[in-house]
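The aim of this short unit is practical: by the end, you should be able to scan a pair of folded records and say something sensible about each. We start with the first protein, listed as its amino acid sequence and then its structure tokens.
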Amino acid sequence: MTLFSLSAPKIFDGQTWHEERALLVEDGRVKSIVRTTDVPSGIAEIDLGHGMLVPGFVDLQVNGAGGVLFNEDRSVEGLRQLCAANFQFGTTALLPTLVTDTRAVTRTALDAGIAAHAQKVPGFIGLHIEGPHLSVARKGAHNPAFIRPMDEADLRALIAARPAMPALLTTVAVESVGPDQIARLAQAGVTVSLGHSDTGIAGAVTAFKAGASMVTHLFNAMSQLGNREPGLVGAALANGVWAGLIADGIHVDPATIGVALRAKKGPGKIFLVTDAMSPMGTDMTGFALNGRDIVRADGALRLADGTLAGADLTMIDALGYMHRTIGLDLDEALRMAALYPAQAIGLADTIGHLGSGAMASMVHLSDDLGVEGVWVEGEKIVA
């Protein structure tokens, strides 16, 4: 048994702030939060001295990082490198994301995810398969040549892969996936998210009733909120589904973010995603996706025609943006980065918070929100 304590001026457990307390970690899990005077004698005690200890961030949309793009490198080692590149930015659990590609590429991506979980790759909690069952009208940076309706083989491949990893998320459009298919996926434990869709509210609500429980990168690549047709944006806000948000000041205007936060109906919440690509954590100025060049400049990633292609964003930057620019209370911004995404994929029993029994995956932040230390399942990864 390995038991140690971490103390800090402030500890946020995902719901409540604790001052002058210590977090007890036993065998990679949170044991409890106690008074510093109640720390058991004889164990290793780490006093962080300043700042705050918060839950590790959970990112449900990471196309690449550390020079690795999942579409191009679908190996276990590639996934290991992709996950590890996120740790320095406070993300301790993530879904590597495959964007629209061929059937063969999707198959090898699922196989890599199954192997990554079997080999216990740190930070890996499953996959996000974004496409190819989308709407060409709202394709964004996805290659339209690969967009197609879901067939029985596609459906069975996702259902078969689901038990082999903690979470499996897929983004689909109602134009390419029917309610019966959504129902079968949801019943099998696959989290179904609507995105890259030009549907009206009626189509979205039908999908929600069938089992879709999320919307991918709210406002981007979807039908917008109008006075007579609320679109997918309106459907997401008016219903209790979860919704990812790219908070980089480029994908969505800050005023729009504020309106969405005030309008969102529960129980599902808006949570943060990076939609990061391979340049995260590197000095890369460009890369290729499906044979198309993407340029990194001015805080954005764009195709030659100016279309946004993912985001040049880290989770710690998204957190800071929500707190400083949007004016959200820090505790709520932290929930958007950790607890809410964990809840959205049904893993909040073990990640997204620092309650008793949770994985001891946490971040030491300075008072100005700099990442000063990261632990993944009790092991210090970033000093």
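Turning to the second protein, read its sequence before its tokens, just as you did above.
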Amino acid sequence: MTAFDNIKTNNWPASSNDFEDFLVLKMSLNGSASLTESLPVVAGSQELSPKRTLTNTGAYFQAPDDVIGNATITGNRWDATHDMKSAFRVGFDTYGQPGAPNSGAFASNGGSYKITFGNGGYPVSQNIVIKFWINGGNLTVNDGENDEHMHTTGEGSGYQTWTIASTDISQLKNIELNNSGNTGPYFSGLYVDGVQIVHDPKKHYANNVHFGSNKYISIPQDTRFDLGTEPFTLECYVKTPDASTGYPIIIGRWGSGGDSNFNNIWDWRPRASDNGGRWCFRVPDVSGGPNGIIDGGASVTDFEWHHIAVSRSGNTWRMFTDGQLTNTVTNSNTIPPIDGPLNLARGYHTFNGSIQDLRFYKGVAKYTSNFTPPGAILS
């Protein structure tokens, strides 16, 4: 936006952060409201970009929680990988997701393995939901009032979702796994009053929006998302443990022909099998093949929060990881208008993890050298 444009939009003198004038999309991705609407972009008294109604297909929010950090563990686990705190750390809620069941808690052969939550546990006003796989043994929860609830193999085998109403349990104090030989339950997820409990470093907010298999958000088509040859910048915080093969997507668009039409697509990935596992940005391939990869120059699949940004000016692409310039690439490919929606975490392969504070600028290359990653959108 030029100085004249600022005058026209009643935004003169311009604010100290002129980059806000170029925002076409901003999403905090921090809780239930952020799953239904994006945030409007406002300059002065003018709305430069409206809030947008989102279509949410399964994405949900998690509550990073230090109560688990203060928990005590008794008994013995099966081996070094089947740790109860690690099961909460990973936060997978489906047996068979990457890392599960190896990431799920599992008791030792013929033994028990118990977590007692710190700070008196979790008060329950609606219900608790426990997700696990069981092929023997049993799983027990205790409400702190000597009232135990047990789920046994006789109540079903395989992947289980066990719901206990608040009328039966008002305070969740502990979870115990019991192995009946060399079989027993793999614990993989806990929800209290509809919020998944995850022992995980939060970034900016109390909740993290989580994406996984068939869990994504779509934003209606808008010509403001067409990139052509204009400068633009995309940035967000991302956290994923998934370094397996495939092509998950943070955000992207594709038109007719879907994900396989390489002339009518762009997307931003936390990793790519054909890119050494590093994050990248994919542009339409003028040769008609899947080779339009702009290498981000770094890996972000260690399940820690990372800020990543891609910035284009002319034919120069700059890729930043945690504020550091990690690659510069020359690429003159045009990104054509696309007739499809903008999608978060929807692509050829599942994106498992969290995205937060996503900002999409059109008309400006916000970053050209090293910088300090920005704070929260909702500061």
